[in-house]
Each structure stands twice: as C-alpha cells, then as structure tokens.
Amino acid sequence: MPVPVLLAPRSWPAHLLVVAALVAAGWLGLWQYHGWQDRRADAARDLTDVAALPLADVIGPDDPFPGSAVGQPVEVRGTWVPQATVTVTGRTHDGRDGSWIVDFADVDGSLLPVVRGWADPEAPLPLTPGSAADLTGWLQPSESTGATDPDPTDASFPQLRVADLAQRFDQDLYGAYVVERDPPPGLVQADLDQLPDSGRLTAIRNLLYALEWWFFGGFAVFVWWRWARDELAAAAPEQAVPAGR
Question: What is the pLDDT averaged over residues 33-53?
Fold first, then answer.
C-alpha cells in the first residue's frame, strides 16, 4: 500500500519546519505581550515613586480631582482634627481582613481625609491628638464602589467616599484622600487600591511586536497549507485507479 504523500519521509522536513515556526512565533509573541504588560505595570508603580509635591501644587480644596495625579506623592502640612477617626471596612492585607483607619487633617481651613494605615479588626484604634499633621502620602480619588452603608450614623464606612464623610463635618472637604506613607505605630501601611493610569501607548511597541510574531505564525500555517494542497493535487493523478481495473 503506498504511503500518503503528506506522510512520506520527504515531507517530514516541511512539517517540522512549520511546527518549529509556530512554536517560535507563539513563544516570542507571548514574551513581547508579557513585556507590554510588565512595562505598563512598572509605569504605574513608578509614578508613585516620584518626588513628593506640596498638596496645594496638585489639588486645592475646591478643585476636582486631577486625573493625572492618581498616586502622586504629596506633602501635607496641617493640624489633626481630634476625635474624628473613622474606619473603612472590608480592606485586606496579606490575605487578612481588616479596616483602614482614617483621620482628618485641617489644611488651611479645609479637611483632608488621611488613611493612616491598615489595622486588624481586633486591634485598638490609635488615638490622634490635635497636633500638627506633617506627613507624606499618595493622593487618591474619592471611591465610588456603590457599596451601601448599613448605618450612616456610626463611624464605620464601607468605602472611602468623600461625599459620605462630608456629612460628619461643617467644614469643606478635599475631593480626594491621602494614603500615609509612614503609618503611626500599631498600623500597617495601607495598600493603594487605585494606581496611576499608565496610558494606552505605554510600551505599545512590545504589543505590536507580539502581534507581528503571531501574524508570522499564522502566515507559516498558510504557506504550509498551500504547500500541502499542491502536493496532494500533484499526487492525485499518480494515485488514481485506471478505469476498468
């Protein structure tokens, strides 16, 4: 019985070549794709490590939140508001459930919510005296998760939404909050929930390289398919059985 033309030993190099091309194109495409993702993540993290700016240079008490300032380190100079501590529940750290401890700094007559840190639910809340608030932290926009507060009258909130906090004070509040970089004793640095937008064009060249490699893999399959079709067409007359036999 004759061996099918595509399984004949002389066809093996073509099969091996297309398999090698597919493996190489697929792996190189994934490598470039992951490079695109990693560089975008690095760009977001790097924005949180830039030099801190005075709060007034980034946002004013009545200013809308500047979208380009998510994660911007800022220097806060003000006075802590005594007995104003609230908690934001549902926060995890290293896989453990806990809460954010939020105090308020009076900065030139307007209040700025400051996430002092993360705390275990069983830990006692640290006392915040009415002393100078001198800190550096990362600026974050007001949250809007849609979570419902089961008891708006208590000092516990399901999200850090400035509009909800404003109901507790007669003073104006900034349209943002700050996550303190160096939390006080007894607290752990809170994780940033909102990182800077790294931009759509960050490391776009890596993404284009990934698409280029995958296109090359698809083109290799197309060339192999054309070759296989021609081989089968050429072998068809030889394998045809004469009429009457």
Answer: 71
